[in-house]
Amino acid sequence: MEFFLDTAEMKEIETGLEWGMVDGITTNPTLIAKMGRPYLQTVQEIARLVPGPVSGEVLATEFDEMMEQGRRLAGLAENVIVKVPLTPAGLRSVRELLKEGIRCNVTLCFSAPALAAAYISPFIGRLDDVAEDGMLLIDQVVTIYRAYDFDTKVLVASVRHPVHIVQSAQLGADVATLPFKVLEQLYKHPLTDSGLERFLSDWNKTGKKFDE
Ligand code: E4P
Questions:
Q1: Is the pTM of this model over 0.90?
Q2: Nearest ligand 1 atom to alpha carbon 28
């Protein structure tokens, strides 16, 4: 499974890259708005920093404008994936952009569709928030896309905690996009910390160095 970071914050991206834990980035208008910086410029800067795919979302809701914004986003860098909402105009744009060789990530997916795109992004946390089962949607989407042999990666979005990642991986999802906090949580365990402390203090009691 690949890990993307769901952020527009450069510091988080740099840290994730240093850890070797980041295969790509997803952004959305909310995340970029938090940065208080120009929209396209932010996507472009992230795409320059990250070797993998970087999703930048169209702001338009009508077909013609979605097409225009999709082309501009895709023109920023080769690794930009155009994020398009799962609406009728969005799906039409995905089909047309694909004909132009532009890869799309279909976002805000809350039911199991079958459509050809580079990525499909089911939002699991937001379903859990309204007392539905986000993981059931991942199961349905993975099953349907595999059954019909779609060349589309299932990208688990709206992840809230590490258990979401483990369960999505067990179901065979291709990618999970994580807030930075969840990436940290994946590798943080109190038993690792206390175990390490004990190993080191036991050795330090000998009074000897590493190479003695
Ligand atoms: C995915 O591409 C979205 O940016 C994201 O996962 C939304 O998550 P949220 O529900 O935490 O806002």
A1: yes
A2: 4
